[in-house]
Specification:
Layout (H helix, E strand, L loop, with lengths): L2 H6 L4 H14 L1 H21 L8 H35 L9 H30 L4 H9 L3 H7 L4 H11 L4 H28 L6 H33 L7 H4 L3 H6 L21
Helix pairs in contact: 2-3, 2-10, 3-4, 3-10, 4-5, 4-10, 5-6, 5-7, 7-8, 9-10
Length: 280
């Protein structure tokens, strides 16, 4: 496809979010309940931890660190699984059930090491860029925004994920900004309530409020992960030669699907295959 057609290919934030809610509605147990249950014990442990009640602050710090690492591990594993669930729906005809959860967990676990490395380097680069008048940090955050999805689903390693994200994000700043704002709006709303309670309340905010807020964020996270995965997959589809609309978008855009040839599905990276034989 020519550069002009590729840039004009529709990539909709609203459609990505709608697909995320639809998949969560079709499969609430594996999409919402199980990921929240995997994270809830660690979040509750942090909420119940009160350093002032412990004789040893070092002991409280150790327990808090363990709880944070446990929550991060649960988040990383479930995020990889959810991306593979989104991929299985994206590649299938409309209405087909997503791939089994255990299969997606198994595939996701194989990508966790590279996912951790990619996320660490990406955030470190963005934070480093913020020290240079903010703009470089925003630029890196934008151009590398899809590295996690890429390294989980298609790219075999860090550099390939960064290269793919950098290429796919070209000319997509407005759409990226829309999706970023939509992702954080519920979080901002919750913190706004807590800030209002701090300003107008008669005493300090109870720790249970923060624990509840964290649990709400954990419940919202799968929707955000699904939306970013669908958005990324649409970018991959738009970037592929001769592809305009794939199976998932065809359900909502029949006119586009009727005028374009069917799209070959993007192949997920298999860590058991040699790197040279992958699709990345």
């Amino acid at each position: 496809m020519s550069d002009s057609l590729r840039e004009a290919a529709p990539v909709s934030t609203r459609r990505a979010i709608a697909l995320a809610f639809d998949l969560a509605r079709r499969d609430p147990m594996q999409s919402l309940v199980v990921p929240l249950l995997l994270r809830a014990p660690w979040i509750l442990a942090l909420g119940l931890l009160n350093p002032g009640d412990d004789a040893s602050p070092r002991h409280a710090l150790l327990l808090g660190s363990v709880a944070l690492l446990g929550d991060y591990a649960a988040l990383t594993i479930t995020s990889a699984m959810l991306r593979f669930r989104a991929l299985s729906v994206w590649e299938a005809p409309p209405g087909v059930a997503p791939a089994p959860a255990l299969e997606c967990y198994a595939r996701g676990l194989r990508r966790v090491p590279w996912l951790v490395v990619t996320e660490f380097v990406r955030y470190a680069a963005a934070v480093f860029g913020l020290f240079f008048l903010v703009v470089p940090g925003v630029f890196l955050g934008f151009r590398l925004a899809f590295a996690a999805e890429a390294v989980t689903l298609h790219a075999p390693h860090l550099s390939a994920a960064f290269e793919r994200s950098y290429r796919l994000s070209k000319h997509r700043f407005e759409r990226w900004l829309e999706l970023s704002i939509a992702s954080v709006l519920p979080v901002v709303a919750v913190w706004f309530v807590i800030a209002g309670r701090t300003l107008f309340g008669s005493g300090p905010v109870p720790s249970s409020w923060f624990t509840t807020a964290w649990l709400l964020f954990a419940a919202w996270t799968p929707i955000v992960l699904y939306a970013w995965a669908f958005f990324y997959l649409r970018l991959v589809e738009a970037d592929s030669p001769g592809i305009e609309v794939g199976p998932t978008y065809a359900a909502a855009e029949p006119s586009a699907a009727a005028t374009e040839p069917p799209a070959p599905a993007a192949q997920a990276f298999d860590p058991e295959e040699p790197v040279g034989s992958g699709s990345a």
